[in-house]
Predict the 3D structure of the following.
Amino acid sequence: MATITISSVIDAPIDEVWARIRDFNGLPGWHPRMVESEIEDGKPATEIGCVRNFKLASGATIRERLNAFSDDDYIVGYSIIETPQPITNHSATLQLRPVTDGDRTYAEWTATFDAPADQAEATAKGMGENVFQGGFNALKSHFSGQS
């Protein structure tokens, strides 16, 4: 099983960062690699078990199921249920924590998944750099006024 963890500190209060990312259907609003998203079956984006179907800038489509959500704990957990990547048994968590020194936000995005042995490292690296760090970089730019 491959594991990837990416963390970052965002120069904004946790409630502001959470407001930007909490919508499970809102990836296109803050992540530059995501261009379209919809929650299937008209379910609320905070309902455990809802499925988002989104398109990447590359044209690929991914479906993910919401497994955990908490406004109190600033956490979103999900699993990929359909992707063109060679992965299975995917589980990911995006969690925010307050950094009291400067009223900033610590963000951590973690995923585990199974992949063919010869592709696991490259897949984890791509997920970490392009999806997780790419999202954090977009949040940092937004809160610094550069986006």
In short: The chain has three helices and seven strands.
